[in-house]
């Protein structure tokens, strides 16, 4: 996730430019495959455009060449053979000077003659820099030093893959005191912050774990991890004792008090507004309060931008209701969903039948 579009030049495939600031707001996502399908430009074309026009890593570019001219020159594809060669060799090797010269000559010729009409007119006054393209910048784009396929990064990439593929919950006991001391917040403010910002996600994850058939992912049997890595995979009682169907039902029924509303977003996303059982907020507090310092930073005066929106005495009224995906509710709380649909007379009510439960033979 980044607002820097140059990340595509370094090999990123899909980018979220900005996280939404409002609930249920669409996520602005860009995919290199979609860009290529829509514009006909691949990663190598984008690199050439950046070299010609300039980027955050080469702010000068070529004087007189704007985005339209750079895109037009990229469509000739004179650069692709050279860039493919660079991709196939190590960044320590020099560029093929003959191919570099051919690229320089071909781009200059098209600027002056526009043989295929890819640019709007002839630009006889534009002259490329004799050192074009900059070898170091090209290499940095094609062989970034932080590339995940680099040999030195393979162990770290494997560890990252494990962290992404297997279930983890934040270590609230350590996270809360870290936040408290890092930002110098009094305990009441820490609790309000965590309640307003983290509790909604905490409840969604709690609900997801109650889905019928949900299994907590485990490490692959053939995966070799160090003792420090294994320590990251917390073991719970569920790993040793399977809950009975009755216990699971009781656990699920304790999550939501009732459904209070429904809505549809963009004609596709169907949501219920649920009201959580307050006992889960107490359980959440029990996890984050354990190692908080109750006496620390009591005299600290918060900035106005920090304190804004956190003055209310009872934040429970802010977080007790939350919009949740209807499919998830039907999976975990079918009886609540059916009861709401039966007792609600609204023109915009969507009726999604919950999945039928199989009876034991």
Automatic annotation (TrEMBL):
Domain of life: Eukaryota
UniProt domain XPG-I: residue ranges: 1-56
InterPro entries hit by this protein: 5-3_exonuclease_C_sf, PIN-like_dom_sf, XPG-I_dom, XPG/Rad2
Gene Ontology terms for molecular function: 5'-flap endonuclease activity
Pfam families documented for this protein: XPG_I
Gene Ontology annotations of biological process type: DNA repair
Listed PANTHER family: FI23547P1 (PTHR11081:SF59), FLAP ENDONUCLEASE FAMILY MEMBER (PTHR11081)
Name of the protein: XPG-I domain-containing protein
Naturally occurring in which organism (per UniProt): Rhizopus delemar (strain RA 99-880 / ATCC MYA-4621 / FGSC 9543 / NRRL 43880) (Mucormycosis agent)
């Amino acid at each position: 996730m980044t607002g820097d579009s140059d990340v595509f030049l370094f090999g990123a495939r899909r980018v979220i430019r900005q996280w939404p600031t409002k609930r249920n707001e669409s996520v602005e996502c860009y995919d290199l495959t979609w860009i290529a399908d829509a514009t006909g430009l691949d990663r190598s074309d984008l690199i050439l455009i950046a070299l010609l026009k300039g980027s955050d890593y080469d702010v000068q570019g070529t004087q007189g060449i704007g985005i339209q001219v750079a895109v037009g020159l990229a469509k000739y594809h004179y650069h692709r053979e050279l860039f493919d060669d660079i991709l196939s060799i190590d960044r320590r090797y020099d560029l093929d000077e003959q191919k570099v010269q051919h690229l320089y000559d071909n781009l200059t010729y098209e600027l002056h003659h526009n043989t295929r009409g890819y640019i709007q007119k002839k630009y006889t006054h534009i002259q490329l820099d004799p050192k074009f393209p900059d070898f170091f910048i090209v290499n940095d784009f094609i062989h970034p030093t932080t590339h995940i396929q680099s040999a030195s990064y393979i162990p770290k990439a494997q560890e990252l893959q494990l962290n992404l593929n297997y279930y983890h919950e934040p270590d609230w006991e350590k996270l809360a005191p870290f936040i408290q001391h890092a930002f110098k917040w009094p305990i009441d403010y820490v609790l309000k912050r965590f309640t307003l910002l983290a509790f909604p996600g905490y409840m969604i994850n709690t609900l997801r774990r109650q889905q019928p058939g949900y299994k907590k992912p485990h490490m692959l049997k053939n995966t070799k991890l160090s003792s420090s890595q294994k320590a990251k995979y917390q073991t719970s009682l569920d790993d040793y004792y399977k809950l009975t169907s009755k216990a699971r039902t009781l656990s699920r029924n304790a999550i939501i008090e009732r459904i209070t509303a429904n809505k549809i977003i963009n004609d596709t996303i169907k949501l219920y507004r649920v009201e959580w059982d307050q006992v889960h907020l107490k359980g959440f507090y029990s996890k984050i309060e354990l190692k908080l310092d109750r006496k620390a930073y009591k005299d600290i005066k918060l900035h106005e931008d920090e304190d804004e929106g956190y003055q209310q005495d009872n934040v429970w009224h802010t977080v007790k209701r939350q919009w949740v995906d209807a499919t998830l509710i039907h999976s975990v709380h079918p009886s609540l969903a059916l009861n709401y649909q039966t007792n609600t007379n609204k023109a915009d009510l969507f009726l999604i039948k919950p999945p039928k439960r199989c009876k034991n033979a």
